[in-house]
Specification:
Helix content: 40-55%
Largest sheet: 4 strands, antiparallel
Strand order of the largest sheet: 1-2-3-4
Low-confidence stretches: none
Radius of gyration: 24 Å
Order of helices and strands: HHEEEE
């Protein structure tokens, strides 16, 4: 039996090779992100615990550090800046309690269903908190 030679154009070969390279890159990128998430999961929990501890210290030193009101401001900012985006978790990750009240800052991180994140930075003026930015 004689089989005719398979005729594939050079362009088809280049496209197939490019597709394989892209698929391999996507798979390796996904595996890299998963590995990084596993490595950082412990340190992330430590940062959240440290921020909670700093919040307790700040609350003991002056009034106005009410977590419930801060969380509500962060939720409203997320709804305004990212309408329709749903998040599963909202963590206080940084408390910047400076002398006085007008320079205090608090950072929250919202984690979405697919693992995407948004950082909300709150600023304080007197006893009122407001969102400075959503990143």
């Amino acid at each position: 039996m004689f089989a005719p030679p398979l005729a594939i154009s050079t362009l088809a070969i280049v496209l197939i090779v490019a597709l394989v390279v892209v698929i391999v890159a996507l798979i390796l990128g996904y595996l890299g992100v998963k590995a990084r998430s596993r490595r950082q999961s412990g340190s992330y929990a430590e940062h959240v615990a440290a921020a909670d501890s700093a919040l307790e210290q700040a609350r003991a030193q002056d009034r106005g550090w009410h977590r419930e009101s801060m969380v509500e401001v962060a939720r409203r900012a997320l709804q305004q800046e990212r309408p329709g985006w749903e998040f599963e978790e909202l963590h206080l990750v940084l408390v910047d309690d400076r002398p006085g009240q007008d320079q205090d800052r608090a950072h929250f991180v919202a984690i979405g269903e697919s693992g995407d994140e948004a950082r909300v930075i709150l600023g304080r003026s007197g006893d009122q908190w407001s969102a400075e930015s959503v990143q």
